[in-house]
Amino acid sequence: MSRIKNLGVDQYLHENMTWQRTLDFYLQENAFLKTRLSHVLDNDTDKDFIAKAEYFQNGFIHNDECMKDLQTDIALSQRMIKEIMDGRSQDENKVFQKHKKLRNEVGYFEKNFANLRNEFNQYLASLL
Questions:
Q1: Fewer CB atoms inside 10 A, N or C side of the chain?
Q2: Virtual CA dihedral for 84, 90, 94, 95, nearest 10 degrees?
Q3: Per-residue pLDDT averaged across 13-25, rounded?
Q4: How many domains does the chain have?
């Protein structure tokens, strides 16, 4: 494998590991948000708030499902990249196309997660 190709494969592997750490953070953050929602629900039983709380809870559950899917895809991508590094696979274009798609999916998830978290925090602040 050429030196430049090695650097590219190393970069893809590094990016995958970064995504794993990022998702680990988001899993913790999402758990915190669900706990926060639970605490607020313990103190507020207004019907309007309960409806809004259901909306946020559904969003947090959706985030968990997305993160699980992303973790599976990242693990698969890492295996495919390691196969290239070990010389067990020559299908680099397929691997790199999947990696680019995964990069877009992670970016999309991060934006949606941040939007929901900000919406939740702003809603709670508006209740003060």
A1: C
A2: 0
A3: 95
A4: 1
| Residues 38-92 pLDDT 10s | 999 988 778 888 999 999 999 999 999 999 999 999 999 999 888 888 887 767 7
Question: Phi/psi class of residue 18: alpha, beta or left (left: φ > 0; alpha: ψ in -120 to 50)?
Answer: alpha
Instruction: For the chain, give the mean pLDDT.
Output: 90
Cα distances (Å, whole numbers) of residue 94 to 2, 84, 99, 114: 18, 11, 9, 30
Q: What pLDDT is recorded for position 65?
A: 98
The rounded distance, in Å, linking the Cα atoms of 53 and 59 is: 10
Its sign, for the CA torsion 85, 89, 92, 98, is: negative
Q: How much is the pTM?
A: 0.87
Domain that holds residue 39: 3-126
Instruction: Quote the pLDDT of residue 93.
Output: 82
Q: What are phi and psi of 86, to 5 degrees?
A: -85, -5
Measured between alpha carbons, how far is 72 from 66 in angstroms, rounded to an integer?
10
